[in-house]
Structures are given as structure tokens and as C-alpha cells.
């Protein structure tokens, strides 16, 4: 038996190469991803790209939406302020309104002859000033009362008035830092004090009344001590001092207002202020004079000085009757009509005071009844004229004196006037109260109707 050759036992190089091929082939096949793995990897990359793209688009559109909403809100905000500046605070330029001087009695918001606000106050102060007007006239939403311990102390006050006076207080502080500025109108500070004092009066707490008096005293200090503005401030100071219990100061201020309105000097040591027999020619001065006379009449009537009250009231009625009025109120121009109705209502108030004084002095009951009936009829006529209702409506049974419809509003010819809207609204409210009070006194105190 022949021995095996080593060449036969050892695989040739070609054979070794062929034997190694399958291993290398399988190794290369293992390193390649399978089609399923490639699909998963591609899906992951695609999903991540989609998520990033969606997030980017979300952020982009959110920013654009936020900017759009912010721009819209800012436009509405500034548009509202522009409306208040140009429309609500505009000065009444009607010649007839100015002839009867209602523009002098109108609210002033520092803008001067053309209305609006003083540009020299600056951006923030002007926005606060308009915000005060909005809070006072439009309210602040659903909140009715505020009890934050501010100017009203711990007393609940109307939230809209609280916000309005806070805005004005901040505006005044800003304005006081600009007093030295040549651009600031000389009347701006006093007009801010006047608006602040009026709102504090309406709040009505003791702290607010003290603060209001301080504002008016600062206005008085800046006035020359004469003219219609001084007369109006004197009446306000008299009323405030009376509400605060300072009767002597109140009487002094009312007397000063009479002197300024009539252009007369008071007699030293007079028991009651001297009242001129002729009324001033200025319509605004006539309204100021009647306001002071009503306040004096109420003071003497409630302080037990009945003889002095009777003397003053009879003189006051004579002065008011001497003021010429339109023979037919309904045919007069709206400013003249409102002026006549204003004087008629004030005379009815003094007539009610005189009726009560005569009754307390044990005068014949008929004289008290006559004054009371005329006062109730005059007040009713004022309320009905302001609302456009007939004086003798069909539902009035028996007497023509009754309480006017409480839901009726002032005529549009008054409501559309910036200078006359608030005086007409206040006059309608007061006339209704006077008419109702006259009827109540007639039935309960004097027993004259039944």
C-alpha cells in the first residue's frame, strides 16, 4: 500500500479560497441592513422630520396669531381713546348753546376751547384722564361696589367712581411735575382739581368730602376772586362745608357767591345776605345765583331761623320772577328751554321751602297749600317738558299733579349735546323728586289734597 502524499491531504490554494468564500459572503451579508430595518429607520427619520416641521409651524403661527391679537387689542384700545378724545370730550360749538353759556357750565377735561385733553400732560396722563371719564360714564364691568380702604375708608363706594378718582389722582400727580412746563395750559391743574372734587363729592364719604373741599380750596386760591368760575366754586365750597357741618363757613361762601354773581357788596352785620332786586344778565350767572339761593333757603329753613328763611325765600322768588323767560317754552331753542326749565325748577324748590316755613309759622294753611301746589305743578311741568310728554296725560285722574313717568328719558335734542346732556339728566332727576316730594307733603303733612 502506497503512502499518502501530503499534497493529497493538504487542500490546494484554490480550494482554500473556494472554502473561504462562503464565510466572507455570509459575513458581508450580516453587515448589511435588512429591507425591514431600512424601512423602520427611514420611518423614524421621516416621523422626526414631520414632528419638527409641525412644531416649527405651530410656533410660527402662534407667534403670528399672538402678534395679530395684540395688534387688534391695541388698535381697539387706542381707537376707544381716540373716540373719547375726539367725540365724547369735544367742546360744544353750537352758537345758541354758547349764547346761553351752557359751555361754561359743562365739564372741562383740560383740552381748552376745542375740548379733549391737554397734549402737554403726556401719553400716560392723557390715557389715565380718558380712563377716568370711561370709568365714570361707562362703568368698569359687573363690579358695583368697592371696599378697598381708599378714599372712601372702609365704606363701600361705587367701583366706577373709585376707579375714576384713582385715575384722576395719578393724573394730578403727573401734571404737578409739569407745572413749570411752558406747554401746559394754565387752567389744566384747576380743571383736574375740579373734576376730581366733583367725583369725590359723588362718593360722599366724610373722607372724600374733606378731600373734595381741599381740591376746591386750591382752585379758589388760583382764581382772581371774581368772575363766573369763582362764583361757582364759592357755591360748591358752601355746599361742602354745610355737608361737613361747618355752617358758618358755608354761609360765608354762599354770601360770597351771591356777591360775585350779582356784582354787589354785602352789608356788614346783615342778618341775611343782601339780595339784589335785579338778576344778572349772564345766563350762567343766573343759574349760579339760583343755586346759591336754594342752598341759603335750605340752610335757614333747617337751622330754625324761620323768619329769616321766609324773608330770604320771598325775596328770592321775586328775583327769579324778574328774570325774563320765553312765553312758550316748547317753542324756544333747546338751550333757552333748558335754561328756563332750570330756573323754574329752582323756584319750585324755594316754594316748597317757603310752604314748609309758613306751615311751621302757623300761617293760614291755604298759603302753604298754594305754594306747595304750584311747586309740584312746576316740577312736573319741568320733567314732562324734558321728556317730551304732554302736561295733562289721559291717565291723570282729578288733579293734574302726579309723579312723572320714571322710565322716560330726556329728549334727543338734549341727549346729543355735550354741554346740555348732563345738566338735563340731572334736572330731570331732581324734578321728579321734587314733584313726588310735593305730592307727598301735600297728602301727608298739609292734608290739602284729600
Secondary structure blueprint with pairings:
Layout: H1 6-9, H2 13-31, H3 35-88, H4 95-99, H5 102-105, H6 123-138, E1 145-146, E2 157-158, H7 159-176, H8 188-203, H9 206-221, H10 228-243, H11 247-262, H12 283-302, H13 306-321, H14 334-360, H15 365-387, H16 412-415, H17 421-444
Helix pairs in contact: 6-7, 7-8, 8-9, 9-10, 10-11, 10-12, 11-12, 12-13, 12-14, 13-14, 14-15, 14-17, 15-17
In short:
This protein is mainly α and 450 residues long. The protein has helices at residues 6-9, 13-31, 35-88, 95-99, 102-105, 123-138, 159-176, 188-203, 206-221, 228-243, 247-262, 283-302, 306-321, 334-360, 365-387, 412-415, 421-444; strands at residues 145-146, 157-158.
Strand content: under 5%
Strand arrangement across the biggest beta sheet: 1-2
Q: What summary fits the major beta sheet?
A: 2 strands, antiparallel
* SS elements, strand count: 2
In N-to-C order, the SSE pattern is HHHHHHEEHHHHHHHHHHH
Distance between the termini: 165 Å
**Computed structural class:** mainly alpha
The DSSP helix count reads 17
- What value does the average pLDDT take? 82
Inertia-based shape: elongated
Q: What's the gyration radius in Å?
A: 41 Å
InterPro entries: TPR-like_helical_dom_sf (IPR011990)
Describe the structure.
The chain has 17 helices and 2 strands. It has a two-stranded antiparallel sheet. The radius of gyration is 41 Å and the shape is elongated. With 450 residues, it is an all-alpha fold.
